[in-house]
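Ops channel
N.P.: pipeline sanity check, posting one input/output pair.
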């Protein structure tokens, strides 16, 4: 089974400023994300870091893994077997 990280949400106080800074440091592009209220850093062809503004004490943590439909069904079955909704 091949699993790839697709994107991660990165909490910040100023999503545009933070994303642009990281993109500049890495030498990669950044800009408004295709979906949602994010400003993305395009790390490579398969990974974005999606910055979001937050004032939360415990910021949002989110990881999205790209898997095949067959692998998704297997993962879903394991979650069901464990009783995890």
């Amino acid at each position: 089974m091949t699993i790839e990280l697709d994107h991660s949400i990165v909490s910040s106080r100023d999503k545009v400023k933070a994303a642009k800074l990281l993109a500049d440091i890495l030498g990669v592009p950044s800009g408004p994300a295709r979906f949602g209220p994010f400003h993305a850093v395009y790390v490579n062809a398969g990974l974005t870091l999606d910055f979001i503004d937050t004032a939360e004490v415990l910021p949002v943590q989110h990881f999205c893994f790209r898997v095949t439909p067959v692998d998704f069904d297997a993962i879903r079955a394991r979650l069901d077997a464990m009783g995890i909704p």
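N.P.: looks fine end to end. Helices lie at 15-26, 69-82.
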